[in-house]
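Friendly challenge for the regulars: who can give me the structure tokens for this chain first? No prize, just bragging rights.
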Amino acid sequence: MISAPLGRGRRAGAVARLRGQGPRRPPLALRLSGLAVAALMVVPLVYLVVRAWGGDSGSWELILRGRTVWLALRSAGLAAAVTAGAVALGVPLAWLTTRTDLPGRRAFAVAAALPLVIPSYIGAFAILSALGPRGMLQEMLEGPLGVERLPDISGFFGAWLALMLFTYPYVFLTVAAGIRGLDPSFEDAGRALGRSPWGVFRKITLPLLKPSIAAGGLLVALYTLHDFGAVSLMRFSVFTQAIYLQYRGSFDRTPAAILSLMLAALAVGVLVLEQSARGRARYYRSGSGSKKPLGRLELGRWKLPAVLFCSAVAGVALVLPLSVIGFWLLRGLAAGAPQVAWSAAGASVLVSAAGATVAVGAALPVALLAARHPGPGSVVTERLAYSGYALPGIVVALAFVFMTTSAVPWLYQSLPLVVLAYVVLFLPQAAEPLRAALLQVGPRIEEAGRALGRSRRTVFVRLVAPLAARGALAGAALVFLTAMKELPATLLLRPTGFETLATRVWTGATAGLYSNAAVPAALLIAISTVPLYLVARRVEAEAGGGRP
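First reply, four minutes later:
Bragging rights claimed.
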């Protein structure tokens, strides 16, 4: 038969690759797919370059102004501080809820992830309402203690606190997934050599989690660079505010394009630092047998401090904002505030789910190139694919407005354009968990399938995809949750009359009608909690041998 020699030929080729007799080049279709995704992601940057190129000398002198340099330093400093704080919260929470006998660890795991569903501008408003100079805490202390005014928390501290509390789940989720995927035999070997539990964590576990920590830190840093709502409410001037004011206050958009290019340069610096932190780390299970279940480490006398730490984080990042929203919600209902139209909730779910699905599909070739075919071409493709995430939503939206009105007017103000903007803005949130999951799938698994005569497609569908499904699911959930909160791109690109929960919240908050804003805010949080809870249950069931 003809199929037998062909099968032997494929097996011989796979065995040759397994023995290192030839380089493993990515398939042409994979390379073309990755390049197509990267080309789509650079559309906003092309728009910025075109706008900046047409500027006069006065516009380019903007770069040399002292205020512009100060904005760059403030933006970079805030991103570094928020990332450090998010890592300081996310890594201990992930380790305590996955590897220790922490009482109520499953409840704490869900509580640690839930702040991700709260938009940063809602979180900043909640912090100001509760802890501001004339907030709820001051009203509570005024009667018994005579406190007339609390210290002002706005500025750098307020922006840092708000962004850290509502972005650390990025680090928590990626590190928790990385811990569950590690082979516990490494830790067993460390303990057999006489290392203490803390020594094993510091010398073995933490280095193995370096890619996961770098992935979560990258998401936090880039999110901070393009945040607008929290820094505006906290009155901390950064690049995003200056760009927004240039777009809204001037007919000439060239200075805003130049400022946006400077912000993109900051993002490139963040990507370079993340690449250095990630290094050449590759981690996956050794051996071919079933994975040994993760053991629970006893906290002993550290159990109470651990519970207090987890409770404090959950109280400030989750209970506080929900209580403030609940307060305004009850006040609005008592005053007869209008209810949220269910059509806005349905619209939010529809467009966010579409954005998450398309983002995962677009992230797959980028993640495969980065994880399976590292090299200069893969690095360039990955970096270009990440370029849109650091840009503010308003910049991406205006770029698509310019492109569609000039080239494809039928696409202007349509739902596909909104979905496309979500993919450009949030592609790394789908790609990073997917790449981390692919790194944990040993390449010898694929080589074994190829040695048995199976095609690349069959090996991927039957072996790789099921093992990387957890990363794809986590990426889709992250994109869905972030798209539910996205505001500038939705405002500028949505069809006429298309309302989402995010636009309803912003309309009420900017008008000072907090009771009206609390109703859609509560519904937005409730809807966003469902996929996050399902992901947490599935991951916990897999880690516990099928027990939910």
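Residues 9 and 453 are 8 Å apart (CA to CA). The radius of gyration is 25 Å. Your move, everyone else.
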